Amino acid sequence: MKYLEGNIFVNFYIFGAAGILAVLFGGIIYSKFGLRQSYLISFIMSILGCCGMLIIQTKVIQFDSDDERDKFDEKIMPILILILKMGIIHSFITTTQVSFTDDRIFPKDKRNTSVGSCGMIARSITIVAPIINEWEAPWPIVVLMAFSIIGLITTFTFPKEDEFADGEKIKEVKYDIGGRASLGKESDLSFHDLNIS
User: Fold this and answer.
1) What predicted TM-score, i.e. pTM, was given to this entire model?
2) Mean pLDDT of the chain
3) 106 and 179: one domain?
C-alpha cells in the first residue's frame, strides 16, 4: 500500500472505504447471485484492479511530464484500489459464508476440520506477504493477480446454484452410529416443492 502511486492518504481512505462497502454489499450479492457468481464477481473485480495497477506501474501510458503522470495517478489509483479491495474483501465474505453454511462445500460432520485446515494453509501462505510487498514494482501486483486468476479458475469447480434440477426427488440420507452416510429411499418431496430460493 505504501508503495502505490498517487496520494498515500487518499489511497488509505479509499482502502478503508472499500472494505466497508464490500462488507455492506457482500452478503447481498451472495444471497442474490449465489456461490459461484459471487466468487466470479469478486475475482473479476480483483483482476480488473490488478490490470489497472499494472498499467500504471509499468508506465504503459506515456505523458509529456512527470507532473501530468502524478496528477493522472492521483485520480485513477483510488478507483483501482476501490475495485481491487472490494473484490478481495467480497471473496473473503463469500468464503466465510460458504464455510459455515453451505453443506455442498464442507459437509456438517467434517466442517470444523475442513475450515481449520483451510485457514492454516491460508495463513501459512500469507506469512510471505510482507516480503512480497517489499519486492520491486510491479511484482507484488503480479503475484496478487496470479492468486486472483487461480481463484477465478477454482470458482468453476464449485457447484452451480441450479445443481439440483427443478422437480428432482430428494433422497433421504441415513447416518449410522459411526457417522457414515448412506442414501435411503426417495422422498415424496422435490426441490420444487421446497421452494428454495
Assistant:
1) 0.76
2) 82
3) no
Q: Residues 135, 141, 144, 150: is their CA dihedral positive or negative?
A: negative
User: Taking a C-beta distance cutoff of 8 angstroms, is the pair 170, 187 a contact?
Assistant: yes
E runs forming strands in the chain:
169-175, 181-190
The answer on 91 and 32 residing in a single domain is yes
As a whole number, mean pLDDT of residues 73-87 equals: 92
Query: pLDDT per residue over 136-151, tens digit each?
Result: 989 999 999 999 999 9
SS3 58: coil
d(CA 171, CA 175): 13
CB 144 within 8 A of CB 166: no
**Predicted confidence band at 85 (pLDDT cuts at 50, 70, 90)?**
very high
Interatomic CA distance for residues 88 and 44, integer angstroms: 10
Range of the domain at 194: 164-197
Does residue 196 share a domain with residue 115?
Answer: no
Query: Are residues 169 and 150 part of one domain?
Result: no
Beta strands in 41-100 (DSSP E): none
Q: Are residues 44 and 98 in the same domain?
A: yes
Mean pLDDT of 175-180: 53
Q: Which sign, positive or negative, has the C-alpha torsion 116, 117, 120, 123?
A: negative
Q: Which residues pair with 190 in a beta bridge?
A: 169
Same domain, 144 and 81: yes
**pLDDT for res 124:** 93
